[in-house]
Amino acid sequence: VNERGRDVVVIGGGTIGCSVAWELALLGASVTLLERANPAHAATWASAGLLMPVTESRTGGPFLDLAVMSMKLWPDMVARVQDATGMAVDYRPNPVLVVAYTDQQVTELDVRYAWQSKAGYDVEQFTGSAARTLEPALGEVVRAALLDRSAAQVNNRLLGKALLAAAQAAGVRVVAGAPVAEILTEKHGAACGARTSDGLSYSAASIVLAAGAWSGAIAGLPRTVPVEPVRGQMLALATATPPISHLIMAPDCYLAPRVDGQMLVGATHEHTGFECVNTPAGVNSLLAALLYLVPGAADLPIAEIWAGLRPGSPDQMPILGRDPDMMGLFYATGHYRNGILLTPVTARAIADLVAHGACDVDLEPFSIERFSS
Ligand code: GLY
Questions:
Q1: What is the per-residue DSSP string for 176-236?
Q2: Integer angstrom CA distances of residue 269 from 60, 232, 247
Q3: Nearest to 298 by CA among 252, 241, 237, 253
Q4: If DSSP codes are grouped into helix, strand and coil, which group holds residue 7?
Q5: Residue 93: which H helix or E strand, with range?
Q6: Distances (CA, A) of 373 to 62, 102, 219, 248
Q7: Which residue from 45, 47, 159, 270 has its CB within 8 A of the most atoms of ligand 1, so it is best to mutate?
Q8: DSSP conformational letter for 315
Q9: Ligand 1 atom closest to the CA of 266, numbered from 1
Q10: Whose CA is nearest to atom 5 of ligand 1?
Q11: Does the CB atom of residue 231 touch ligand 1 within 6 A?
């Protein structure tokens, strides 16, 4: 590692913070991770663990390129985290079926199919009845579907715990319950540490901001970090065997069958600040969307209901790379709906950038400078 990479403070203990800290420690850095509450919690714990680079992209471009690159890194990250910790994370390929109900949605699926197949992705179109042959639990409302075979899923809660354990095993010092109040700077303006709300200071030559939805609320940042919480309410049904085997993306909900038999139903998108709660309207909208899509799910037991805060950025793309003005400050935030998917590529790129001053991923499209007027 270079001089800046020797001592690093990582702010945030989700999958992004833990994985960046882990990779940095493996590269020889001395890393302290400051987590405002509990590591491996917040959006890491609340998410659905869906890995769908193609389906999550509206079109080709930098987001898709980054997501596809990350997808390729997943098997290796899973193998390494299992080797380091002995912990399973239930990663498995799991194609996604995107379904349409209305004329407009059918047209949107045609548009998706056109660009995705032209770009060489493994996608296939189905009529509603053919989709029901694949997934008999889907209701008659499904008029058309698009199968994206490139998707996968992981148990995000197991992943969070495993990445935290891997980071600690590699020597990362994790401080929980330590909200960062301020980035500290030297006289000439370079970052030199972080002060937590209890007044303790942690000095470091480099700071990685990976605080998810809370990334903008820290004093001493050289610019506005435009990350806002976007609440997602979710629920899980308990089943012996989930009624579906694919991931399903519907216009108003998604479904994910888990290996443990649960079926996840997500998620709302709400701009309601930091209030991380379930509401009657939110849960009602998920249940209505579920029963519209899978009428036979009406009597399944509800196992759990929860909510999380996505770190949303104005263009829904992550903010990655160095600050152009404050030496030693790096961003790894704003991953919105795809923090789990983008974990391996973020970890590798940011760790290389901090430790070596360069990385082999083009981070230019994700620079915080894109928000400067
Ligand atoms: N990645 C799914 C969601 O954010 O709800």
A1: -S--EEEEEE-TTS-EEEEEETTS-EEE-SEEEE--GGGTT--BT-SS----EEEEEEEEE
A2: 23, 5, 19
A3: 237
A4: strand
A5: strand 92-93
A6: 21, 39, 21, 39
A7: 47
A8: T
A9: 5
A10: 267
A11: no
H-helix or E-strand containing 157?
helix 156-169
Nearest to 302 by CA among 233, 232, 238: 238
Q: What does the pLDDT read at residue 182? A: 98
Is the CB–ligand 1 distance for residue 212 below 6 Å? no
Residue 53 beta carbon below 6 angstroms from any ligand 1 atom:
no
**Would you say the CB of residue 50 lies under 6 angstroms from ligand 1?**
yes
- Beta-carbon-side half-sphere exposure of residue 300 (alpha carbons within 13 Å): 24
Tens-digit pLDDT profile for residues 87-140 = 999 999 999 999 999 999 999 999 999 999 999 999 999 999 999 999 999 999
| Nearest alpha carbon, ligand 1 atom 2 | 337
pTM: 0.97
Residue 194 tokens read as: 């972080």
Q: How remote is the CA of residue 53 from the centroid of ligand 1, in Å?
A: 12
pLDDT < 50 positions in the chain: none
SS3 310: strand
